[in-house]
Amino acid sequence: MKNSDIINLYFNGEGTDNKKIENYIKENNIINVILTGRFSDNDIQRLYYNSTIVNILISCSDLNSKTLLTNRLYQAVIFGKPILANIGTYQASIVKEYNLGLVIETFDNLENIILKYIKNIDINKYNSGRNIFINNVITDNMEFNFRLFSFVK
Averaged over 79-90, what is the pLDDT? Predict the structure, then answer.
């Protein structure tokens, strides 16, 4: 997808790989990848509203990476943005179960896979899954709080 005429990739925030990405962009003269750097909580809504799809791709190198749920997953759902997740992660199973976006099995031809998904998204199915997911998260949090407060009494 580098130097795509159709897709721009924005990396918002500061991560451990920002310097590597910045160097890769410069070394390969990539024009469609933008690192925005650190942002404040006040910027979150704007960043999500300006996105078409949210990347929650993570390494599958260890158990923690395979089982975590990122803040981006919850934020994308809250702001109504489809998600891009990689197969082999718990996040991908959530995305698939609730129809929250696209699970990537291969990075070959990724631009066309994403464009096809965006063109053919069933917004009613997405919103239904999104609402079910949100309700399940709320229910799980209420159950957790109930059990925690029962335990500490």
Answer: 95
